[in-house]
Amino acid sequence: MFTTDIPSGHRSRARRRTALAAAVATTAAGLIGVGITQATPSSAATSCAAVRWGSLTKATSPMTAHPLTGVRSGQHPCFDRLVLDLAPVGSGYAGYNVSYVSSVRTPGSGRSVSVRGGAVLKVTANAPMYDAAGRATYRPTNSRALTNVAGYRTFRQVALAGSYEGRTTIALGVRARLPMRAFVLTSGDGGQRLVIDVQHRW
Description:
Blueprint (H helix, E strand, L loop, with lengths): L7 H26 L8 H8 L8 E3 L7 E8 L3 E8 L9 E6 L2 E2 L6 E2 L5 E7 L29 E10 L2 E8 L5 E7 L5 E8 L3
Antiparallel strand pairs: 1-4, 2-3, 3-11, 4-7, 5-6, 7-9, 8-9, 10-11
């Protein structure tokens, strides 16, 4: 049998290195146990599966004088998001009405606003698009495409219907009648954000 003699000092250092490696492995396992975990491909799928909102009307009644200043959108793993930004100047808390409809019409004149998609959401913010002096606070470059939603999984088109008597209406074309939710967030500067999320699938 072939053997190799290792000096006792080297053996001690080797044992210490082995013990240290074992301690590190044990600590790592403990950290994973208390919530520090590695991301896995199924993490996003699990998160998306937990999202259940429904397709019925979402509405609250308050009115606000905080005027609309911008519209933006974004993509998330489970849903597409539309955000209406309201200025920090003003009073009251923004209410809203978000519902699936057969068509959206301009407030006041009643003209139909058509958008692409298999279904359309009428998004009404209980907030004006002008300030107390009647000056416009939001001037989109293209009222038929408030944001670029090319390549989105759910959104197809975002168009402005108009602002009338303190309410602003937007037509949101989506792929199909899918679950959605709506809520309002308040910024640190006093501004508000009306958020509409539409899920990618049932």
